[in-house]
Design brief:
Blueprint: H1 4-16, H2 19-26, H3 30-44, E1 49-50, E2 56-57, H4 59-77, E3 87-92, H5 94-101, E4 111-116, H6 123-127, E5 133-136, E6 145-159, H7 161-167, H8 174-177, E7 182-184, H9 191-200, E8 208-210, H10 214-222, E9 228-231, H11 232-241, E10 245-246, E11 253-262, H12 266-283
Parallel strand pairs: 3-4, 3-5, 7-8
Antiparallel strand pairs: 1-2, 5-11, 6-9, 6-10, 6-11
Helix pairs in contact: 1-2, 1-3, 1-4, 2-3
């Protein structure tokens, strides 16, 4: 049988980043926290925490913490443990969080622990058991999960008027795109490349700035730093006001979104799932 007090100590270290902060949260001494984790590691036969610095969980440590979160969520759904706040680990893409999904998260039946990842890669977190739900662009449900279609998040290729004058004086051609700085959220962000291929028919190697924040991404476009794919929900007013130029109004990039969630914890997640569904219906395209 698993030692849940010891796993709780492990989970608090992972969540708070230190043995001392975990000890304060659990109202015990750092020495007691250390002993619990060491005992758990002995029983599991593997290292669960890299003591650092910085302190970081191993893959097995993360799986145990995620297991505890799911147990607490189930208990909360059954009203077996009202004094414990279950932690909801969710995978959410930054653009949804910045444009429409944040208000829905107020319906979460517990404490949020968000993993920000590209919608094309969120399923990896579900498959590994690290999260109980995810916003994803893949409709195929992960084993043990249900998939709910939410709608479509529309992206527009945008740049400032000054950027367009400098880099696209003869139009958005393959030659111009190969030289004009683009914006990229992270190494997983393929939206700019996908759009450029749809426009030109060629897979281009784009020069890029890396801007790992949704609103910073839009701001970089407004400032003329580069061109990039921004959600219409975020930049629609800027396009209408002429602060941003839609590089090809007839070529938006539509990304379908799905809410995938663990069947085991579906009942406990029901308020959040309903809030996500309503928010998506109000904001996304069908």
């Amino acid at each position: 049988m698993l030692d849940y007090p010891a796993i709780a100590a492990l989970a608090e270290i992972i969540r708070r980043g230190s043995f001392e902060a975990a000890a304060a949260a659990l109202h015990v001494t750092p020495s007691a926290i250390s002993q619990r984790v060491r005992s758990l590691e002995d029983r599991m036969g593997t290292v669960l925490i890299d003591r650092g610095p910085p302190v970081a969980a191993t893959a097995q440590g993360l799986r145990l913490a995620a297991h505890l979160d799911q147990v607490r969520l189930l208990e909360a759904g059954l009203a077996l443990s009202p004094e414990n706040h279950p932690v909801l680990r969710l995978a959410v893409n930054a653009d949804s969080l910045a444009s429409w999904a944040m208000p829905a998260l107020s319906a979460a039946p517990g404490l949020l622990d968000l993993t920000i990842d590209d919608q094309d890669h969120a399923l990896d977190w579900l498959r590994s058991g690290m999260v109980v739900a995810a916003l994803t662009s893949d409709s195929r449900p992960v084993t043990g999960c249900d998939s709910l279609r939410l709608g479509t998040l529309r992206y527009r290729a945008t740049a400032s008027p000054g950027f367009v004058d400098r880099h696209f004086p003869k139009g958005v051609t393959p030659e111009a795109l190969a030289l004009a700085p683009s914006l990229s959220f992270n190494t997983k962000d393929a939206l700019q490349t996908r759009w450029a291929k749809a426009l030109t028919g060629a897979r281009l190697s784009l020069p890029m700035h890396r801007i790992p924040t949704a609103h910073g991404f839009a701001e970089a476009a407004l400032l003329g730093i580069g061109w990039g794919m921004n959600p219409e929900l975020i930049v629609g007013e800027d396009i209408a006001a002429g602060r941003l130029i839609d590089l090809s109004p007839d070529l938006p990039l539509d990304v379908p979104l799905y809410w995938q969630f663990s069947r085991m914890t579906a009942a406990a997640l029901a308020p959040l799932t309903e809030a996500i569904r309503k928010a998506a219906k109000a904001a996304l395209l069908p």
